[in-house]
Please model this.
Amino acid sequence: MANKIHKVAIVFFSAQENTRIIAEWFRDIFQEKGIDARTRDLTGLTRKGISELEIDFLERADLFLIGSPVYSWHIVPPVEWFVSRLPRVHNRPVVPFVTYGGVNSGEALSELSRSLKKRGYLIAGAGKFLGKHSLMFRGERPLGQNHPDAGEKTLVRKLVEKVVSISFEEEGFADSIAWQALENKRALVRMLSRRVNMKSLGLVMPKISIHPKKCSKCQKCLEACPVRIISIDPQVRIMPGCIYCYNCVRLCPEEVFSASMFGLEMAIRGMAIMNRERPRSQIW
Model:
């Protein structure tokens, strides 16, 4: 007999909209079933903000979901920080999920699952979901265009159905989804993911140029930066900790920030052809 789930906590970070959409679908589908599901957004919180975030709401939840976009083949730093400060628990069910832009989901899902298991959580289910590639905002045909779509929403619904049917007390549940099962099946991806990270990514990503004379102090860049590392006082600057989302370039109305994205877009398309990740969206 399945355990009754009364409360669900869904934590996510979303520099664009992909992960937010999936998180809100989870929330809405749980609520359709009469389950109290609530989201907690890490976007826009600094490391200090995450460290000060009250997480007692997780203790009141019967099920915990956590979602991250895939950046540089890994989970984003804010999600990593959040997981690292979770109190240790004993056999609490969790559902990790990631979104990615159609190139490579990397090792993000197994990485997130492994970190959660170290904190004492049981992996009740997991998912990777295709979304529009966030760095192809200047291209006419971005990878993952029009995703997440109805197909991804169907997978979200199936994952909810699966999780609510599980008896978390059944013998062997702890090993029903081991983090190893979520590893990327390509050995090359697993090998390269050990070398690719935010620090190494910064060496090859397009440089962001700043044109301070254009700045009208409208503060749109402060709102757009998901990790809050832009300062405009006394002058415009990007502080350490950039995750290369290029929201400042995309959303600044004065074009204070600029970057050449053409070469990157060509590289992204090439990597997608080499990788050919299938299935593009999947649940476990």
Summary: The radius of gyration is 19 Å. The first helix runs from residue 18 to 32. Residues 7-190 form a domain with the Rossmann fold fold (CATH 3.40.50.360). The chain has eleven helices and twelve strands.
